[in-house]
Amino acid sequence: MFTGIIQAIGWVAAIEPKGIDSRFYIKTGDLVLDDVAIGDSIASNGVCLTAIALPGDGFWADVSAETLSKTGFRHIKVGSRVNLEKALLPTTHLGGHIVSGHVDGIGTIIERSSAGRSVHFKIQVPAELARYIAAKGSICINGVSLTVNAVNGSVFELNIVPHTLAETTLADAQAGMDVNLEVDIIARYLERLLLGDKAAEAAPEQMITMALLAENGFLNR
To answer: What are the boundaries of each domain within the chain?
Structure first.
């Protein structure tokens, strides 16, 4: 588990094809690795990766074909910068929100503009993820815990302050770029709980509806 508070910016130093999978060597820059062991998890652009070797200035990790197809790792090249965060400890300050490192989908930046000293983004998300995103709720973008400013259908807005721009790769983000998305885990569990016994029934899609909320006492009849 992670918090979405980026600890360092690293970069991809090597990529080795392994059949349909790939092995990545990520140099970790200022990230202290003294307390990291082989088998530990490090979130890289929001993707939970397992360290399989620790040469000293970074780590090697295997990236499966599934991860390559479902995340922005399919676009990463040697030299690409990545946001890094080590797995949280029981004593870690939860300055962001609970992040699993399991990417839910890919969003696309459709607009970047200046907002004083900050930067304002509009991001288009896949239709199936839109229901999990709420104004003033939490969202994880490329591993960064952020607050949603506003939502309009499948487009949501973010305001990135100067500190976050300086400490993450979001400073590099431009319109047209894809980003890794992880929605708030609480929203996913809430949806499942509201289904009650219906959760055991096979269905093509399970969605929170007004009828479902009323049935479970969340709305006045």
So the answer is: 8-86, 105-183, 186-221
What is the Cα–Cα distance from 148 to 182, expressed in whole angstroms? Answer: 13
* pTM greater than the 0.90 cutoff: no
**Fold agreement between 8-86 and 105-183:** yes
Query: What is the model's pLDDT at position 90?
Result: 84
Topology of domain 105-183, CATH: Elongation Factor Tu (Ef-tu); domain 3 (2.40.30)
Residue 172: alpha-carbon gap to chain centroid: 16
Contact partners, residue 141, CB within 8 Å, separation at least 6: 46, 107, 123, 158, 170, 179, 180, 181
- Average pLDDT on 100-127 reads 96
Alpha-carbon distance of 96 to 130, in angstroms, equals: 21
Say whether domain 8-86 belongs to CATH 2.40.30.20.
yes
- Residue 200's pLDDT is 84
Give the Cα separation of 66 and 56 in Å (integer). Answer: 28
Is 213 or 71 the better-scoring residue by pLDDT?
Answer: 71
